[in-house]
Design goal:
The protein is an alpha/beta fold. 32% of the residues lie in helices and 16% in strands. It has eight helices and ten strands. It has a seven-stranded parallel beta sheet with strand order 1-10-9-6-2-3-5, with helices on both faces. A three-stranded antiparallel beta sheet has the order 4-8-7. Strand 9, helix 7 and strand 10 form a beta-alpha-beta unit. Helix 1 crosses helix 2. The model has no long low-confidence stretch (mean pLDDT 97). The site of 2-amino-2-deoxy-6-O-phosphono-alpha-D-glucopyranose (GLP) has 14 residues, from helix 5.
C-alpha cells in the first residue's frame, strides 16, 4: 500500500486527479471504477476542469440504492450524471451504474460482473471509505470474496447518509454493490479519505489486521493501492512519519 498524506483535501485530490489523468493519457480507452459520496466530489470537479478526453473511456460505478427512482436527487445515477458525466464527453453507452430498480436483481448483478469482464476488467477503481470501514457498500462482515450483490446497510451507514435524505428513516436499507472480490480484481485501487471522522476506519484499514469487520483492510492484499489522505484522516496512523518519508523520497519517475 502506498499511503500518501497531503496537507489538505484539495492537495490530496490533486494527487488522485493526476493519477487518473496519467492513466487516461496513456490508455484513452481505460475502464474506470467510480464511487459516489462526498469524498470524490472535488475529484470529479478537478477532472472536469482538466478537460480530458473521455470519448473512449468506459466506467462502472460501485453501487446504487435499491428501489430509489433513477431520477431521485439522491440516486447514484443522478449523482454521477450531475457531478461528472454531463460535464465530460463520455458516451452514454459507456457508463454503467447498477440498476436499483431491476426486476431480477440477482440476474442483474451477474450481468454486471459479466459486463466488467467483457470490458477487459477495471483499470483503476476510485474508492471512498465509510466510517465503519465499508468500501462500495460492503458493510462489516461482508465476505472478502464477495461479488456484485444485494446488501443491507448498517444502522451506522443509514445515520451517516441521513444528511443526504433529511432523515435516517428515508435512507433506503438495501443496495446493490460490487463485491469485495470484484474490487480486488481492479488493476489499481485509489482509496481517498478526508476528515477526522474517517481517521479510525483508515487506521484500522491500513495498520490493523485484515478482517471483514473493516472491509477496506483487504486492500492490504492488493498489489497496487494508493491510499490518499488529508492530515485529519491520517490522524490515527502510527507510522505516518514513514509514509511521508516514502512519498518525499520518491524518485522523479515514480512521482505523481
Ligand atoms: C457511501 C458510499 C461509499 C462511500 C462512503 C463514504 O455510502 N456507498 O462508496 O465511499 O459511503 O461516503 P462519504 O464520501 O460521503 O463520506
Amino acid at each position: 500500500m502506498e499511503i500518501i498524506i497531503q496537507p489538505t483535501q484539495q492537495a490530496a485530490t490533486e494527487v488522485a486527479a493526476r493519477t487518473i489523468a496519467r492513466l487516461l493519457c496513456g490508455k484513452p480507452n481505460a475502464v474506470l471504477g467510480l464511487a459516489t459520496g462526498s469524498t470524490p466530489l472535488l475529484l470529479y470537479q478537478t477532472l472536469i476542469a482538466m478537460k480530458l478526453d473521455w470519448s473512449h473511456v468506459t466506467t462502472f460505478n460501485l453501487d446504487e440504492y435499491i428501489g430509489l427512482p433513477r431520477d431521485h436527487a439522491q440516486s447514484y445515477h443522478s449523482f454521477m450524471w450531475n457531478n461528472l458525466f454531463k460535464h465530460v464527453n463520455i458516451g452514454k453507452e459507456n457508463v454503467h451504474i447498477p440498476d436499483g430498480n431491476a426486476q431480477d436483481i440477482p440476474g442483474f448483478c451477474r450481468e454486471y460482473e459479466e459486463q466488467i469482464s467483457a470490458a477487459g476488467g477495471i483499470d483503476l477503481q476510485v474508492l471512498g471509505i465509510g466510517t465503519d470501514g465499508h468500501i462500495g457498500f460492503n458493510e462489516p462482515s461482508s465476505s472478502l470474496a464477495s461479488r456484485t450483490r444485494i446488501k443491507t446497510l448498517t444502522r451506522q451507514t443509514c445515520m451517516d447518509n441521513a444528511r443526504f435524505f433529511g432523515s435516517e428513516e428515508s435512507v433506503p436499507r438495501h443496495v446493490i454493490t460490487m463485491g469485495i472480490g470484484t474490487i480486488m480484481e481492479a488493476r489499481q485501487n485509489l482509496l481517498l479519505a478526508f476528515g477526522q471522522n474517517k481517521a479510525c476506519a483508515i487506521a484500522q484499514a491500513v495498520e490493523g489486521p485484515i478482517t471483514s469487520i473493516n472491509p477496506a483492510s483487504i486492500l492490504q492484499m492488493h498489489p497496487v493501492v494508493k491510499v490518499i489522505l488529508d492530515e485529519l484522516a491520517a490522524g490515527n496512523l502510527t507510522r505516518s512519519d514513514y509514509y511521508r518519508w516514502v512519498y518525499k523520497s520518491k524518485p522523479d519517475w515514480q512521482s505523481v
